[in-house]
Specification:
This protein is mainly α.
Length: about 190
Amino acid sequence: MTVIYIALALIVVSSIAVLLSYNRFVSQRQLIDNSWSNVDTELQRRHDLIPNLVETVKGYASHEQRTFETVTAARAQAMSVRGSAAAQSPAENNLVDGVRQLLAVSEAYPQLRASYHFLQLQDELVMTENRIQAARRFFNGNVRDYNRRVDSFPSLVIARSFHFSREEYFEVEPIVRDVPAVVFNPQ
């Protein structure tokens, strides 16, 4: 009789462990979805800023038409791709390259760099980039924790049984990555 109680207790404890592990996987997947939503919101903010930046630069450098078309096409492509981090990364990196080109064009126009509107847009872009990177780090941290559970024993048994699979990290380069150089000339 004692053996039956022990076996029954083991079955109950095992069932509770499986249930708790399953619920934790569900919770972590929802956390990943929520953190991806934050990344996506910041990417949308970037997408909304870029047309204003293009128009401002266009006013000063109208002969740089190819650059404007490249950035506009890259933005349209980035906005059309929706879904997972892995699906959006290439389009976002293409957009980053285009905006970097646009900012490089602006370097050739001192009057543009002195424009209040351009400086304001550039500051807004830098703030947005910081927010994207912070949201990306949070998302990737959640993905790391989830993937660790998917690959670790004994939770990998639950993961495989209920078809929980690894998630992809979101890898995107920031538009603004160079630290401004400070030159001090004592006289």
